[in-house]
Amino acid sequence: MIVNVTDQAGVDHELEALEGWRVMEVIRDWGLNIKAECGGAMACATCHVYVDADWLDKVGAPSDEEEDMLDTVGDVRSNSRLSCQILMSDALDGLKVTLAASAAKDDVAA
Q1: Within 13 Å of residue 110, how many CA atoms lie on the same side as its CB?
Q2: Does residue 110 register a pLDDT over 50?
Q3: How far apart are CA 49 and CA 106, in angstroms?
Q4: Concatenated DSSP letters for 16-53?
Q5: N or C: which terminus of the chain carries fewer CB neighbours within 10 A?
């Protein structure tokens, strides 16, 4: 299964993923520019991504707790999600997300 990720520099990456893995884990393990400081405990917002419009319904809405965490970042949008809260499944094969500038571990031009 595949996750399509656009990094903060606008470069597209096609990442192989395993069922049940968090999208954050896939992005991190492939070495892209993501902090993911809390490791998926939803205690930070450093795995912030924008979900492509075509995938919003399949991914579903964020929980109230996730929305509260997203409110702590300045670049939140209506399609913002924490990638640690999206679990890979057959239904999400081909998922397309873009890494938010606020998720970057390395300095990037915003």
Answers
A1: 8
A2: no
A3: 16
A4: E--TT-BHHHHHHHTT-S---TTSSSSS--TTEEEE-G
A5: C
As a whole number of angstroms, the distance between CA 47 and CA 44 comes to 8
Q: What is the mean pLDDT of the chain?
A: 94
Q: Write the class of the CATH domain 2-102.
A: alpha beta
pLDDT at 107: 65
Q: How far apart are CA 33 and CA 64, in angstroms?
A: 26
Q: What is the CA radius of gyration of the chain?
A: 12
Residue-range domain boundaries for the chain: 2-102
Is the pLDDT score of 109 beyond 70? no
Number of residues that make up the chain: 110
Query: Ramachandran region of residue 38, left (φ > 0), alpha (ψ -120 to 50) or beta?
Result: alpha
